[in-house]
Fold:
Amino acid sequence: MSYAAAAPSMDYVFTIDVAVQPPIVLTESPRGRRVYIPIVGGTVRGPRIQAEIIPGGGDRAVERAGDVMDIHASYLVRTSDDVVIEVDNRGHWRELPGRSPYFVTAPVFATDDDRYRWLTRGVFLGMAHEVDETRIVIDVYAAAMAEVVAAEERTT
Amino acid sequence: MTAIAPPQLRWVAHATVEVGVPVPLDSTSDGGRRLVPVRGGQVVGEWRGIVLGGGADRQTVLEDGSVLIDARYPVRLDDGSTVCFVARGVRPAAAPGGEFCTSLILRGDAPTGIGSTVYLAVGHKAADAVEFDVFEVA
Structure:
């Protein structure tokens, strides 16, 4: 068994700036509510990718008792070199006493274009921040996959 | 990059997940899809859990031999709550020992601090089980 393998380093790759509209309530009860948050635009900016969010996606969020929210956003982006990439981004939002809320996601990307193959062979974390009701900013980090392989080799 | 703090990873648990024989499903433009049944297992660490049967890893085997992991399986935590582990990531083609990395999200009524947290899992595949360490993302 390989207890306590080293965590891979996380490298900054890009920032997603998402334009959203107010939530549409789908179901509501004392246990919480499910909402749909329309995604109407935005950008992806980083050293290896420049893209625009294609309007029409959304976040199917579940608001639970205790001021916590499950995030599941799904949308498309079109890169500056005209490649469409699917984004599927799950995560959690919750209040933290005396600090800015915990808002972390794990985006998964899909495309068959070789220029963006690295997006489909990686594991990513999104550190998110709600700027205001119309805008979410997410800094995306990639796990160093070479370290994942090397760390496990050392312990097995 | 904005002023948001970068992710901090902290080890919280080690998991052993017993898996069954892969069931080939179909081929799509993305690759060959197969279902790997999850039979049981355990999570041991700052919090503990028993992996229940009935879940599966719906894998996609890409042209270069990389495997996309999309696993969902129920886990009963030691406080009695049941959550669904949602693990998505990659086993790279170049990983000689079956090393993989996924994100890990819990869905369900787990205690807030555990359930409403995103994790990173790093591990490797053995013959009939996968072993991985779970890191909390803060």
Remarks:
- Strands of chain B lie at 9-19, 23-28, 31-45, 49-51, 55-61, 67-77, 82-91, 99-108, 118-125, 129-137.
